[in-house]
Amino acid sequence: MRIISGKYKGHRLAAISAGIRPSSNRLRKTLFDVLGDFVDGSVWLEPFAGSGAIGLEALSRYASYVIWNDKNSEAISLI
Fold first, then answer.
1. What's the pLDDT tens digit per position in 17-41?
2. Contact 46, 20 (CB under 8 A)
3. What letter would DSSP give residue 31?
4. 56 or 72: whose pLDDT is higher?
5. Quick check: 39 and 63 in contact, CB under 8 A?
6. What CA–CA distances, in Å, run from 28 to 24, 61, 73, 74?
7. How does DSSP assign 19-50, residue by residue?
8. Residue 44 belongs to what H/E stretch?
9. Using an 8 Å Cβ cutoff, are 1 and 10 in contact?
10. Quick check: 42 and 58 in contact, CB under 8 A?
11. Which residues pair with 37 in a beta bridge?
């Protein structure tokens, strides 16, 4: 899994194997295509972070800040 656009485009994302299913590239592409320029300077909350892919994609597209939360401490440590 990789960051699909922005300043970190192409960076690989690590994931743990504790039953976490990261969001697909297609889902993230669609989400950020819809949001467009609203991402720049925005603040994000990712309450079920898992791999943190959506928040990391937002940061890559110049979001100001991301808050990740997950009940799995290993996932949070990885992010």
1. 667 777 888 999 999 999 999 999 9
2. no
3. H
4. 56
5. yes
6. 6, 12, 23, 23
7. S--PPPHHHHHHHHHHHGGGGTT-EEEETT-T
8. strand 43-46
9. no
10. yes
11. none
